[in-house]
Structure formats: C-alpha cells, structure tokens
C-alpha cells in the first residue's frame, strides 16, 4: 500500500522559490560589485568594473549597488508572497485532516457505546 507524503510540495512552489532565490543572489552579487567599485583602491581608467557601472548608469539610471538592492527586494518579496500563498493551503489541508480524524474518532466512540449498551435476549 502506498503511503501519502505529508509534505507535498507543488512544482509551481519550487519554481517560484528558485526564481526568487536567483533574484536575491543576483542582487547580492550586484551589491558586492557596487561596493567593490566604490571602495577599491584602483585607478578608474584601468578598472573594467567602473566602466561597467558607468554603462549600467547610462542604461538603467542606477549603479550596481542600487540595482542590486532592487533585485534583492524583488526576490525577497516574491519569496514571502509564495510562502504566504502556499502556507495557507498547507494549513487548510492540516485543519481538514484534523477535523476528519476527530469526526472518525467520534464515530468510533459512538459505535463502541452502542455495542456495549445492547441487551442480550435469550
């Protein structure tokens, strides 16, 4: 007999957690790159990260650090939203199972009391 898994994780949940994790990690990497560009003791003309940051600023209007903060925030918010959505579903399933178990226990108790109260006729 096949047993049911207690923690059934949906494919969409895994996909959304992966996307939010990738966004958060990408944001952290961008923040680190921005901090390296701002605080490194390297001449500006020889530093390719500085040139890349200038390209970012011209394209997006934000530096590595700001863009990393935006990506990190989006990743965390997406993760929290997915967690809230699926947590309510898991809570609903757990509540449904506990009600089912209580109802079954009540039926078993009623059945056993009916059996013990029966009279035997000869």
SS field, number of helical segments: 3
Largest sheet: none
Structural Rg:
29 Å
Shape: rod-shaped
Low-confidence parts lasting 5 or more residues at pLDDT below 50?
none
Overview of this protein structure:
There is one protein chain. By secondary structure, this protein is mainly alpha-helical. The chain has a domain at 11-87. 78% of the residues lie in helices and 0% in strands. The protein has three helices and no strands. It has helices at 11-39, 48-60, 64-116. Helix 1 packs antiparallel against helix 3. The longest helix has 53 residues, at 64-116. The two termini are 44 Å apart. The mean pLDDT is 81.
List the helices and strands and how they pair.
Blueprint: H1 11-39, H2 48-60, H3 64-116
Helix pairs in contact: 1-3
List keywords for this structure.
122 residues, 0% strand
Short description:
By secondary structure, this protein is an all-alpha fold. It is built from three helices and no strands.
């Amino acid at each position: 007999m096949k047993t049911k898994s207690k923690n059934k994780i949906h494919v969409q949940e895994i996909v959304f957690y992966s996307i939010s994790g990738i966004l958060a990690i990408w944001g952290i990497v961008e923040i680190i790159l921005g901090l390296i560009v701002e605080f490194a003791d390297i001449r500006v003309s020889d530093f390719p990260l500085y040139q890349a940051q200038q390209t970012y600023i011209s394209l997006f209007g934000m530096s590595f650090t700001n863009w990393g903060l935006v990506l990190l925030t989006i990743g965390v918010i997406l993760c929290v939203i997915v967690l809230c959505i699926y947590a309510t579903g898991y809570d609903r399933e757990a509540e449904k199972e506990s009600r089912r178990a209580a109802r079954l226990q009540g039926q078993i108790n009623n059945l056993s009391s009916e059996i013990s109260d029966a009279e035997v006729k000869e």
